[in-house]
Amino acid sequence: MRVIVVGLGEVGQNVVRTLSAQRHEVTAVDADRERVEALQGDLDALLLAGNGASPKFLQEVGVGEADLLCAVTQSDEVNVIAALAGRQLGVRRTVARVRDEEYFGGDDEFSREVLGIDFVVQPEKAAADHLAEAVDLPGAVQVEHFADGRVTVAEAIVTPRSPLAGAALRDRRMDPPHVVMGIIRDGRTMAAEPGHRVKEGDHLLVAAAREDIATAIARTAGEAVEVRDIVIFGADRTGIALARRLLSSRLRVVLMERDGDRARAAAEALPGATVLHEEGVGRDDLIAAGVDRAGAFAACSGDDRANLLAAMYAKQIGVGLALAIVSREEFVPLVDALGIDAAVSPRLVTAEAILRSVRGERVQALRLLLGGAEVLEVEAEPGCRAEGRRIEQADSMGHTHVAALVRDGKVILADDDHRVQAGDRVLVFSPRTGLSDVRHAFEAA
Questions:
Q1: Around Cβ 291, how many Cβ atoms within 10 Å?
Q2: d(CA 138, CA 198)
Q3: Using CA atoms, how far apart are residues 83 and 70, in angstroms rounded to an integer?
Q4: What is the pLDDT of residue 443?
Q5: Residue among 250, 264, 238, 388 nearest 325 (CA)
Q6: In terms of DSSP bridges, do strands 252-257 and 274-277 run parallel, antiparallel, or are they unpaired?
Q7: DSSP label of 65
Q8: What whole-number distance in Å separates Cα of residue 239 and Cα of residue 249?
Q9: What is the C-alpha separation between 151 and 249, in angstroms, rounded?
Q10: Phi/psi zone of residue 121: left (φ > 0), alpha (ψ -120 to 50 degrees), beta?
């Protein structure tokens, strides 16, 4: 596909790298000429300095012949105008990052018909949803639902109490039915094989029917304590969205914020929460806020360094589950090194939405993992290469691991004897982003 990316910040650079790695033709524009010059040679794309919100400039770069326009600058206004101009000039599809919901009120039809945006990305709200899913499922640190909620994929940390610690995957108890798709060890993700021996501290990616996932995760982790209260550090959009979501689940919520004005605004917006104006993120500050007694801690400030430091201290003083927002890619390896249970990246949330747009209509859902892997759901087309093949053959054709099939509304956890049928919704896992070439296996030629 031919793609135009407007904005070369952290998110834009990640989008360009992801799309160019999958051999799409990418043109990226940014208003900051110095930034464009600095990135020349670092990105496999045509980089241009210019105003991405200018219809005249977009016309000059050929937006009318493009398949997709991705507007991911820091400015909602620029992104909305770029999408609207691109739509008027003939681009086939638009994706825009829009933080402020007041622009479209959560109405997808309004965003398409009035703003010219086919898909609105709200990375902070989506990141808050990811954090909330982890808090809601005891024993899990990442959770994602597929196949209209029928299949759940969760990431569980193997504790000393886990019956899997030191054992081979093939010897695990299979009640309830589940599939271990991948293993994250020392920050590296690999596809799970029956002979792999599980180590304490490993993160296992487990797929199961939604009604079975809680039991499967509890037995995998060996320890699953229900979270009843949480301390959130940071009252930005992510922190507020997370607090609002968890208050609706009747959790006790304490919100820490360093900025006085923001803390007052949070207290007014969240009458059910306890809001603390705290200047620091040291151990004493966290203990004073009750983090050592809390079931979970989520660092959601706009500062990656502060988030990592706060989550590390929270884990050290005894919080049950320590989560952090990490936006910058260079900080990702520190998550495991600092003993933090899991991190969520708003930039990956944006990349997921854009990849969904370029993968085609058959890709129903997609999740990128910080460990460098992806999980996606794709519909098997009639006449595709995988049709009628056993799962092990579909694996090799698609460079993926098939974890589950959904057929006629029924979840089938895959094993080598199952065969793919046209119309199946197939959940596949790849240990490296971009390697799951689903078109070769699950789309008709």
A1: 25
A2: 20
A3: 8
A4: 77
A5: 238
A6: parallel
A7: G
A8: 15
A9: 22
A10: beta
pLDDT at 333: 83
In terms of DSSP bridges, do strands 25-30 and 94-97 run parallel, antiparallel, or are they unpaired? unpaired
- Identify the residue whose tokens are 């479209």: 104
Indicate whether 438 pLDDT > 70: no
Residue 334, pLDDT above cutoff 50: yes
Please answer whether residues 314 and 334 qualify as being in contact, where contact means their C-beta atoms are separated by less than 8 angstroms: no
**Contact at 8 Å (CB) between 148 and 134?**
no
287: tokens are 């203990």
User: Which residue has tokens 């003083």?
Assistant: 317
For residue 99, what are its two tokens? 């933080």
C-alpha span between 236 and 14 (Å, rounded): 23
Q: How many residues does the chain have?
A: 445
Helix spans in 29-180 (H): 33-39, 55-60, 76-89, 108-113, 123-136
pLDDT range class, residue 444, cuts 50, 70, 90: confident
Query: Are 98 and 82 spatial neighbours (Cβ–Cβ below 8 Å)?
Result: no
Task: Quickly tell me which residue has 């460990």 as its tokens.
Answer: 371
3-state secondary structure of 208: strand
- In this structure, the number of other CB atoms found within 10 A of the CB of residue 213 comes to 24
- 389's tokens: 């093949």
Using a 10 angstrom Cβ sphere, with 0-12 exposed, 13-18 middle and 19 or more buried, the burial of residue 306 is middle
For the chain, the straight-line distance linking the first and the last C-alpha, in angstroms and rounded, comes to: 17
